[in-house]
Amino acid sequence: MDVRRLQAFAKVYELRSFSRAGEELLLSQPTISAHISALEEELETQLFDRLGRTVLPTQAGDVLYRYCTTIFTQLDHAKADIMALSARVAGELVIGGSTIPAHYIIPRLVARYVAAYPEVQVDMTGGDSSEIAQKVADGTVHVGIVGAPASYPELVSLPYLDDALVVVVPASLPLPDLTGSGWQDRLAGLPWIMREQGSGTRQTLEASFAKGGLDIRDITPVLVVHSSLAVLECVEAGLGVAAVSTLAARAYLERGTVAGLDVPHLDMRRSFYVIHHGKRYLFPALRAFLKICGFA
C-alpha cells in the first residue's frame, strides 16, 4: 500500500471530511478522493459511507485505521533511529501545555530548544491538564507540561516546577477575615469564579478545600471560565474572587488591580509536571526536549 494513500485515509478518518483532510495535508479534495478510491479498489471494500456531507467510516475503515496508527508510529521510529545514527535531532515535536505552562513556561523552553535544535519542527497545542494528558496518551501529543500528575498509568509524570495558588479578589472588595472560627463559611460565601472541571488549578483547589474541611460542591460559582487569564480579567472587573497560579497573578497584583486574600488554613501548593508516554519510543527530538527540561 502507498503510504501517501494511507495518510490521506487516516486524515479523512480523523476529521470525517474529505475537504478538511485536503486542507490539513495541503492536497486538493479530488486528490484525497482519488487516494481513498485507490485504497478501496486495492482492498476490494468500502472504507467510508458518504452520506451527503457526512463521512462515516465503515467497519473495514475502523480496522484499517487501527493498523495505520501502528504503521505511522513504526515509520516515525525508523526515521528517528536513522537520524540518531548521524547524531541528528530533527523531525517534528508536538508539545502540549495546560493554561499556565502554555503561557508562562513552555515559550521559554521552546526558545532554548529551537536555538539548540533548529532542524526540529515544533508544534504547540493547548488545553486543560486532563485534555493534554489524553492527547499524550493517544499519541497526538509527544510531551506535555500540566498542572497535575497524569491519571493514565501508561504516562510518566515528572515533577518539574513548584507553584502555588493564590486567592485574588477585586481591589475594591473589602478583604474578609479568614483567621478565626467559621472561616470556612465566610470563604464559601464569597462570589467564586471557578476554572472548569479537568483543569490542574481546579484539581488543586478541590484538594486544598477538602484538606481544610470544605466541599467545593457546596459552592455555586458565579462563573466557570476556561482560562486563567480570563479568570483574572473577570476578577479585575469586579465579578468575584478566584484561585489562580501565582505565575499568572503576579502582574495583576503588582499593578494593584486585584488583591491577594490570605487564607492561612489552606495549603494550595502544587507542582507542574512534564508528562510523556512511558511505553513509547523516546525519539531523539523528544529526548532532547526532556534534556532541555533538566531530565537526562
Written account of the structure:
This protein has 296 residues and is of the alpha/beta class. The chain folds into three domains: 3-84, Arc Repressor Mutant, subunit A; 88-160 and 272-292, Periplasmic binding protein-like II (D-Maltodextrin-Binding Protein, domain 2, 3-Layer(aba) Sandwich), CATH 3.40.190; 161-270, D-Maltodextrin-Binding Protein, domain 2. Helix content is 46%, strand content 22%. The chain has eleven helices and eleven strands. The protein has helices at residues 3-15, 18-25, 29-43, 59-85, 99-116, 129-138, 183-188, 200-211, 228-236, 246-255, 284-292; strands at residues 48-51, 54-57, 91-97, 120-126, 143-146, 155-170, 193-195, 223-225, 242-245, 258-261, 269-277. The strands form three sheets. Strands 3, 4, 5, 6, 9, 10 and 11 form a seven-stranded mixed sheet that branches. Strands 1-2 form a two-stranded antiparallel sheet. A hairpin with a 2-residue loop joins strand 1 and strand 2. Helix 1 packs across helix 3 (29-43) and helix 2 (18-25) packs across helix 3. The protein is elongated and about 75 Å long. The mean pLDDT is 92. It comes from Solidesulfovibrio carbinolicus. Belongs to the LysR transcriptional regulatory family. Keywords: DNA-binding, Transcription, Transcription regulation.
Descriptive labels:
11 strands; 7-stranded mixed beta sheet; 296 residues; D-Maltodextrin-Binding Protein, domain 2; elongated; alpha/beta; Arc Repressor Mutant, subunit A; 11 helices; 3 domains; single chain
